[in-house]
Amino acid sequence: MTNRIVYDVSGVIPNTARADSQQGILNLKALIVIDMLNDFVTGVLANKTDAERIVPNIARLIEHARGDKDWLVVYSNDAHRADDPEIAVWGKHAMAGTRGADVIDQLAPVGAEREIVSPKRFYGAFDGTGLEEIFDQYGVTEVVLTGQHTHCCVRHTAYGAFTRDYKIAVPADAVCVFPGVDQDAALDYLKTIYGAQITTSEAISGANA
Question: Which CATH superfamily is domain 15-207 in?
């Protein structure tokens, strides 16, 4: 059987999650790839230099997680509607169904086993998505946060993970901020406030090889 999941905001937990849970696939780690989308790399809210710098490190983690049955790979992607609150703040970006809301080609989902695509309309990966229910089905206990942006969507996702009692790791070389924002301060906030382990992509993939 396959463990592939394509998850959306409908709130329906896929049957594959229930079936795998019943077969004892529990205590997984989840690699969450946050907003590595065309609009955030080369599009309307481009962060090209910093985003492209972290791509190889995220790719390494995805490859590792895809090859390990104890991991899920989660793509947490902005997929906005015109009336979403973020649109009033940032303008139109990553609109659902557009090329701008697609994951960049270098990191795109491939339909691999234990792969989840989770559209979101708010900053955090858990806000209004039902991702917690998916994690409950799989018994996820740890999350590794990657992508954009350390001080915004990564931070809000860390908060969501913290309030749900997941262990949090953040590889510093696999997240980035907007230009002009202090990356070290953003990472320190995650460590100090949410108890996140600040690490590297190599340490995670090597430690779990």
Answer: Isochorismatase-like (3.40.50.850)
